[in-house]
């Protein structure tokens, strides 16, 4: 291993780093009863369909933004995924696997959108330019009563650095980090979404983590 | 363990396993070996801490909210779909 230099005041002496169990990552939305909503919606319950689509749009937005990297493309992909959700909910064979199905649908929509726009000049997005509606707009929000200003500033700074670091990763690596670390999908679920083996997910996730820590270190350390 | 230079090959091999170690995917025997190595190797210990911090940062950062105007357009489209 290449020797890690300590440029800042960070403590680098050996200390215990314990493993965590598979699936321990917190996953926003994991607790929601998607399967129940899918079954009810497939059975013709319009209120359930509306609830399903409302929940799905939040998930689809986060993932499409992670994959597409641009808010306009992300919105198109999200809309496409929602329409497919509406049309094909009745045909989903395994309601328990709705989230992986949704992610796969969003990913396919992003890839299709990219293919359609292949002839267009590439859009260059400033890394300092906040994505409309992203947390950059609320970074350090003094009206947040739950956290003190120092904590808000530190969290906001970390999120900003992480957002920049994530954009340096190749798209598939970014998608894997998003699904595994941020959404809390299992390795198997990520493999299903990405259409690759579980070993491949683990390898790419590890490379992505190493690249991210190095990128974060450039700014932080 | 005598330092990063003599342990280079071993550290390189361990680096490849660090994510699986942190994800709890290795056998308990292999975990013990890695823990033993980390106790005496600053480089690997530092890398393990940084990877863990990176994982924690990712998990804490997923607060991307759907912008209001995008939400409104999506709602309108969903309503239109539901109306047929």
Verbal overview:
The complex is a heterodimer of chains A (221) and B (84). Chain A starts with 33 loop residues before the first helix and ends with a helix. Chain A is mainly α. Chain A folds into two domains: 28-117, Rna Polymerase Sigma Factor, Chain: A; 147-221, Winged helix-like DNA-binding domain superfamily/Winged helix DNA-binding domain (Arc Repressor Mutant, subunit A). Residues 1-15, 21-31 and 121-145 of chain A have low confidence and may be disordered. The longest helix of chain A has 23 residues, at 46-68. In chain A, 59% of the residues lie in helices and 0% in strands. Chain A has helices at residues 34-42, 46-68, 71-88, 98-116, 149-167, 171-182, 187-194, 198-220. By secondary structure, chain B is mostly helical. Chain B has one domain. In chain B, 75% of the residues lie in helices and 0% in strands. Chain B contains four helices and no strands. Chain B has helices at 8-22, 28-40, 42-60, 68-83. The longest helix of chain B is centred in the middle third of the chain and has 19 residues, at 42-60. Chain B is elongated, with a radius of gyration of 23 Å. At the A-B interface, α2, α3, α5, α6 and α8 of A face α1, α2, α3 and α4 of B.
Summarize it:
Chain A has eight helices and no strands. With 221 residues, chain A is mostly helical. The longest helix of chain A is centred in the N-terminal third of the chain and has 23 residues.
Helix and strand element order of chain A: HHHHHHHH
Alpha carbon gap, first and last residue of chain A: 19 Å
Multimeric organization: heterodimer
- Please tally the β strands of chain A and state the result: 0
Beta content of chain A: under 5%
Q: So, the CATH homologous superfamily of the largest domain in chain A? A: RNA polymerase sigma factor, region 2, helix turn helix motif
Task: Tell me which protein chains meet in the greatest interface and how many residues each side has.
Answer: A-B, 62 and 58 residues
Largest sheet of chain A: none
Task: Tell me the radius of gyration of chain A.
Answer: 19 Å
Structural class by helix and strand composition of chain B: mainly alpha
Helix-and-strand structural type of chain A? mainly alpha
**What is the CA-CA span between the terminal residues of chain B?**
70 Å
* Rg of chain B, Å, rounded: 23 Å
């Amino acid at each position: 291993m290449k020797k890690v230099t300590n440029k800042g005041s960070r403590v680098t002496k050996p200390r215990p780093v314990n493993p965590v169990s598979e699936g321990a990552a917190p996953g926003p939305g994991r607790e929601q009863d998607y399967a129940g909503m899918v079954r009810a919606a497939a059975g013709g319950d319009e209120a359930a369909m509306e609830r399903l689509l409302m929940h799905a749009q939040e998930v689809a937005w986060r993932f499409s933004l992670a994959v597409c990297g641009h808010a306009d493309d992300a919105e198109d992909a999200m809309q496409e995924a929602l329409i497919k959700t509406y049309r094909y909910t009745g045909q989903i064979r395994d309601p328990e696997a709705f989230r992986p199905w949704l992610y796969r649908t969003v990913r396919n929509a992003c890839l299709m959108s990219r293919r359609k726009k292949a002839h267009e000049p590439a859009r260059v997005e400033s890394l300092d330019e906040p994505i409309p509606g992203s947390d950059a707009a609320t970074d350090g929000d003094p009206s947040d009563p739950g956290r003190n200003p120092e904590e808000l500033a530190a969290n906001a700074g970390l999120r900003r650095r992480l957002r920049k670091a994530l954009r340096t990763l190749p798209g598939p690596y970014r998608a894997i980090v998003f699904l595994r670390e941020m959404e809390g999908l299992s390795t198997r679920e990520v493999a299903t979404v990405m259409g690759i083996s579980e070993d491949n997910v683990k390898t790419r996730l590890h490379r992505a983590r190493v690249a991210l820590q190095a990128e974060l270190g450039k700014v932080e350390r | 363990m005598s330092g990063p230079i003599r342990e280079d090959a071993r550290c390189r091999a361990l680096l490849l396993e660090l994510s699986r170690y942190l994800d709890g995917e290795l056998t308990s025997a292999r975990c013990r070996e890695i823990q033993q190595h980390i106790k005496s190797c600053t480089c690997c210990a530092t890398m393990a801490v940084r990877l863990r911090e990176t994982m924690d940062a990712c998990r804490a950062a997923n607060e991307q909210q759907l912008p209001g105007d995008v939400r409104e357009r999506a709602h309108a489209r969903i309503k239109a779909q539901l109306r047929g």
